[in-house]
User: Fold these one by one.
Assistant:
Number 1:
Amino acid sequence: MKVDVFSLKRQYEAIKVEVKEAVEKVMQSGAFILGQDVGLFEQEFARYCGVKYGIGVNSGTDALFLGCLACGVGKGDEVITMPYTYIATALGISMTGARPVFVDIDERTYNIDTSKIEKAITEKTRAILPVHLYGHPADMDPIIEIAGKHNLKVIEDCAQAHGALYKNKKVGGIGDTSCFSFYPTKNLGAFGDGGMVLTNSEEIKARLLLLRDYGRKGRYEHIEKGYNSRLDTLQAAILRVKLEYLDKWDENRRKNARLYTKLFKESNIDLVLPYEADYAKHVYHLYPVRVKNRKEVMEKLAEKGIRTLIHYPIPIHLQEVYKDLGYRKGDFPVSERCCEEILSLPMYPELSEEEIRYVVEEMSKVT
Ligand SMILES: *Cc1c(COP(=O)(O)O)cnc(C)c1O
């Protein structure tokens, strides 16, 4: 049997007819840039998250970059986030000229350890940027409280958490702005790059509309050195079709995760399983486990046709590109340890029970 870590094929088979219709409509209209589907998808996705405004952009990275800029983050500022995330979280901050400042993670949820945030705040801190990593929401209440006390903005990185709930509220509607990616393998993925920033603030929305479209006001006037970062109309049309299925897909991910967890618990395999906090509805963008002999496990599974991946092997503070920040090995021990042990098992909504059983069975032979 072959089991891929994720696959988009089965999903496409299920929605092919609707997607082709939606794409055909855009092609016929000829309105490829900021066409009708962009505005409609912005409204629909913002409503889905319980937020007033959605601004479609090029990618999740640009959503972070422009979201930070629109919150007033710039050169000389510091933004607090965690080193245990995809590099784009930090790049979005750096692109504004600001400096990412790291705080270690909580070992169970793999999200920012809120008890360590205040120690990282300085005169230059402008914002806190939690990541809802793997689809598990960060503990937002303490973050909002700390931000309020120190007059900081809160920018959510929701790239892995479309539909996740924090205390029964959708992530993306809790901070000042939130940033989504529609990279194809995300819980809600386009057929190419795409992203969105959400906000309840009229002012932040207005700034984002300028920033993504050459700083343009009307047709010919430019009042800000903006960028070209718009959600493509074809992608928006496809995303509108897919949004209708997001809840069902997230539920399937949860069902798959429950089965993995049940089987692993029954099997006495020595590994750390994903955790779901009381306040959280996890949407399992990934199903990461921790094993001591990761290299061996990956190789053995690969021999059996099971592909796994590592999210992420190197914490950002030890990445070459961020040497200039001056961090050292040992600065964030929890992140560093998790980077050495974490392993993503196959996870996507259409994964079958038989495939999950096969993965667990093969895991039991090597751990
Ligand atoms: C995917 C991802 C991003 C970047 O999104 P792109 O659309 O690929 O630019 C940012 N942050 C996290 C946590 C991600 O997983």
Number 2:
Amino acid sequence: MSDPIKYVLDESRIPKNWYNIMADFPTPPAPPLHPGTGQPVGPEALEPIFPKVLIQQEMSGERWIEIPKPVREVYKQWRPSPLYRARRLERALDTPARIYYKYEGVSPSGSHKPNTAVPQAYYNAEAGIKRISTETGAGQWGSSLAFAGALFGIEIRVFMVRISFEQKPYRKALMQAFGATCVASPSEETEIGRKMRELYPGTTGSLGIAISEAMEVAAKDPGTNYSLGSVLNHVCLHQTVVGLEAIEQFELANDYPDIVIACAGGGSNFAGLAFPFLGAQLRGGKKVRVIAVEPAACPSLTKGKFAYDFGDTGQFTPLLKMFTLGSSFVPPGFHAGGLRYHAMSPLVSHAQSLGLTEAKAYHQTACFEAGVQFARTEGIMPAPEATHAIRCAIDEALRCKQEGTSQAIVFNLSGHGHFDMSAYTDYFEGKLVDVAYDAEGIRKSLDKLPHVA
Ligand SMILES: *Cc1c(COP(=O)(O)O)cnc(C)c1O
């Protein structure tokens, strides 16, 4: 009998609850603060832009939060997602390690992002909201929310980071196909957009700026809410379906990971896979090594400061305690657009500060090399973001080979790269260069961190 390469669960096994790591942290994370008063923000501060249920989830300490039935119905289209055993990659590496990957590219937009886009659109629709404005980096989030908006009858307006708007025209077409509108950020449509264009002529844009534009639109129009595709607690919460399914799939495989790996931009796909395993560990289960992988050109966890900062460039958000490069830092235009965020989710940052997780940074050419090796063995074109996780998984598997140890490694294959082929074209033509991290730019940006008593 041949060894299985895929562990699938039927749709009745879609988790009934999301997992909230707040319930299991040994010490609670620092609360979000109001930038004016320096006091913790109450739920009412967020009500102009978020529906009440999402604000409750953002602040909840409950371990399990029920997934509404209509959300589970939509999840059925692609969930539970498969857990693969990468046997051909293992053979190519000649490693004794057992490599697994959870494949989130099977969703309608090709990434993990619909896991939170669907409940966010659902809760907004339940609250009577008709329009949502949002930002997008590589276009993954914009197209995911566009899909979810189409299902629940919500108009979606997307501010897309300019460099991606230019590099990834098909993502824009996908958003349009789902019925959303998409503009390049910084745009002429908002005050902050116009200000940024004046301050930095020809800027490639950044997630921090696009977030400010989308928030400005939502704050000025009572009928429009705002939605964020990563970073926040409720987003990490929704993504835990990934890790909860993986735990059941490891039971099918009669195995359990020693190492859990994911790429980290704002931290949501990392949290989604890792938090359920970390939670099990915190409740007395097996200890796992958990590694967040970030781009060397935007290294918030490995080179940033753990401090209160704004989540956006326009400084509209509450102050969040997180690993940050400073909200005025504009990351260089490398190809993993989804990883170009100046900071890291407060929950992921808290886990890192407690020593529960590790972080690594890689340059993009080493990541594309790993992505191509993965495609040639496993037959899936990974998203540029996901190649960071693959690079790290391969390096850990090679370490196992050197040490002669057999460990189980699982990584999140957060999305496919079918809309990112121009990046691969650049790689094959030798045009992809490694961008050193801008130490001086980061230092200047960190100098401008807000002062908190
Ligand atoms: C958006 C995105 C990421 C990065 O976002 P996180 O919130 O850090 O998960 C990673 N991979 C893919 C495919 C993405 O679309």
